[in-house]
Specification:
The complex is a heterodimer. Helix content of chain A is 36%, strand content 21%. Chain A is α+β, with helices and mostly antiparallel strands. In chain A, the strands form 2 sheets. Chain A has a 4-stranded antiparallel beta sheet. A 4-stranded antiparallel beta sheet of chain A has the order 5-4-7-8. In chain A, strand 4 (219-226) and strand 5 (231-238) form a beta hairpin. In chain A, helix 1 (3-15) packs across helix 2, helix 1 packs parallel to helix 3 and helix 5 packs antiparallel against helix 6. The termini of chain A are far apart. The relative contact order of chain A is 0.11. Chain B is mainly alpha-helical. Chain B contains 10 helices and 2 strands; from the N terminus they run βαβααααααααα. Chain B is globular, with a radius of gyration of 23 Å. The chains are: A alpha+beta, B mainly alpha. Strand 1 (157-163) of chain A pairs antiparallel with strand 2 of chain B.
Chain lengths: 286, 224
């Protein structure tokens, strides 16, 4: 084909309206002729705009959940075969969102190690059949999304909450477990040494609770004890074993909070002292 | 379940800082498409969700326009987004905007589908009109969607409205139904040469219109 013949077919080619034989000839010519390629590009750009002219219809809401279920399944599959883990260590999580200074990442790693978050053996954890169940539909996915969004600016402050007060973890064989208040729920099976960091940003109006040692796959309700009395729920954390469970909180009021904790009860305010009724309780005013 | 609470920072954290992190927050809602695609390559689920929500209606609508079947359009939309998640590197920013690439992928995939299903004969003129007569969804409330796409949608819709009906019809049958010029000629019972001319003239008019609009948009205001 010569340029004149191709010129007459360029627009149809941009629309995908050529039969296979014509299409092949046009493409051969375009690969050899710069001038015709320029013309084709102009037609292609306009053709691509046509899709913008469609009348808009709302995609069904259920489509979102079905799509995300596929995505999470794919991600879980990637992580089963990938090394090291990309999601639930605080360092990798922060690196994934945006580049952070090496110093900041190092600080975070030190803190994580100090709380007993075992980062080094995450490869072993990946290979085992006990991988955290990160792929779930519905509410747990929403909580996960909130957790991923909980990052603050340079003004991010944080506080190591250390081991939870009243944690029933037994330190050595033969040790007697500490007396547990009757109202306090039992720790789920598989729970280890629980530690936490609480970080917040006044500028961004967000706080995030990072907890390690929670029983894999178990749901914990995050709770806040209010200065004025009573307790307020803050959402659900899913236990990730030695990896970090996290929950983000949007700061929307000025109600003082004196403690944060976790419970496996259905509500935060079961009556009585939260330090007795919650499974894990961390004072924020000590 | 409520997801927020509040406290007075000064009252609780009046003590010295224990740790400080230099972390930057990625504001997903205002992140550009290219940034979000970079997030996809880093396997950032939230970046994917943001892109999904930003363009899902447009992708769905494009698929619906081509396929003429809501269930097929749903399935196709899901397939397209999963493909993007699995192969984000398929998008080359050097070739143009993400949204135009996304819609091209959507349109091409949907056209492949109808071709493979052999449904071309069903897409007579009447069906095209039926799809367009469905109740429309509202424009997305995503500020970035509106800021970026509102003008472009307006431009192409306006450009198409200036075409003679038969030229617009030929172009839309080619683009949205994946018909070849010969198939369009057969469907409309017109000579092949006539269809070729309609497509060529129509596309020329569109190109001139879009270029003139772009020139007006970049030209300094009169009187300055």
């Amino acid at each position: 084909m010569d340029c004149k013949q191709v010129e007459e077919l360029i627009d149809a080619h941009a629309l995908g309206a050529l039969d296979p034989a014509e299409k092949a000839e046009v493409e051969t010519h375009l690969s050899e002729c710069g001038d015709c390629r320029v013309q084709y590009e102009q037609s292609r750009i306009v053709a691509e705009q046509l899709a913008l002219s469609v009348q808009l219809h709302s995609a069904p809401e259920g489509l979102f959940h079905r799509t995300m279920a596929d995505i999470y399944r794919d991600l879980a599959e990637e992580q089963r075969s990938a090394q090291p883990i990309r999601w639930y260590t605080p360092q990798r999580l922060l690196e994934r969102v945006t580049p952070i200074g090496a110093a900041a990442a190092a600080v975070l790693a030190v803190v994580a190690l100090g709380l007993g978050m075992r980062l080094d053996d995450r490869v072993d954890r990946l290979d085992s059949d006990e991988n955290p169940q990160m792929v779930q539909g519905g509410a747990p996915i929403q909580e996960q999304q909130l957790a991923n969004l909980a990052f603050a600016s340079e003004d991010l402050l944080s506080r190591s909450l250390g081991d939870a007060a009243g944690d029933p973890t037994v330190d050595q064989p033969g040790d007697q477990p500490a007396e547990r208040p009757d109202q306090q729920p039992s720790a789920p099976e598989g729970e280890g040494s629980v530690g936490a960091i609480y970080a917040w940003s006044q500028q961004w109006g967000v706080g995030v609770l990072l907890v390690t040692g929670l029983a894999i796959g178990h749901q914990y309700l995050a709770c806040f004890e209010l200065e004025e009395g009573g307790a307020s729920p803050g959402g659900v954390l899913i236990g990730q074993g030695n990896f970090v469970s996290q929950k983000a909180f949007k700061i929307i009021t000025s109600t003082p909070v004196v403690a944060v904790g976790l419970t496996t009860n259905a509500t935060c305010d079961e009556g009585g002292d939260p330090s007795d009724t919650w499974l894990h309780y961390w004072s924020l005013t000590d | 379940m409520p997801s927020g609470n509040g406290w007075t920072f000064d009252q609780i954290y009046g003590g010295p800082r224990l740790l400080a992190f230099a972390v930057m927050l990625l504001d997903y809602s205002t992140a550009a498409d290219d940034e979000l695609m970079a997030g996809l390559e880093a396997r950032d689920i939230t970046a994917f969700e943001t892109l999904y929500k930003r363009y899902r209606d447009l992708v769905f609508s494009t698929c619906l326009r081509v396929l003429g079947d809501a269930q097929l359009a749903e399935d196709m939309t899901q397939e397209i987004y999963v493909r993007i998640w699995k192969r984000p590197a398929a998008f080359d920013p050097a070739r143009g905007k993400f949204v135009t690439w996304l819609l091209s992928v959507s349109r091409n995939r949907a056209v492949d589908e109808i071709r493979s299903r052999g449904r071309r004969r069903k897409h007579e003129l009447g069906n095209v009109v039926d799809v367009e007569d469905r109740p429309s969804g509202k424009e997305r409330e995503d500020p970035l969607f509106n800021a970026v796409l509102s003008d472009e949608r307006t431009a192409i819709i306006e450009a198409l409205s200036t075409l003679p009906v038969e030229q617009r019809q030929a172009i839309e049958m080619a683009y949205f139904k994946g018909l070849t010029q010969q198939e369009i000629a057969t469907t409309l019972k017109q000579p092949l040469g006539t269809i070729k001319t309609r497509i060529r003239l129509g596309m020329q008019k569109l190109k001139v219109f879009m270029q003139a609009r772009e020139n007006r948009a970049t030209r300094p205001a009169d009187g300055l």
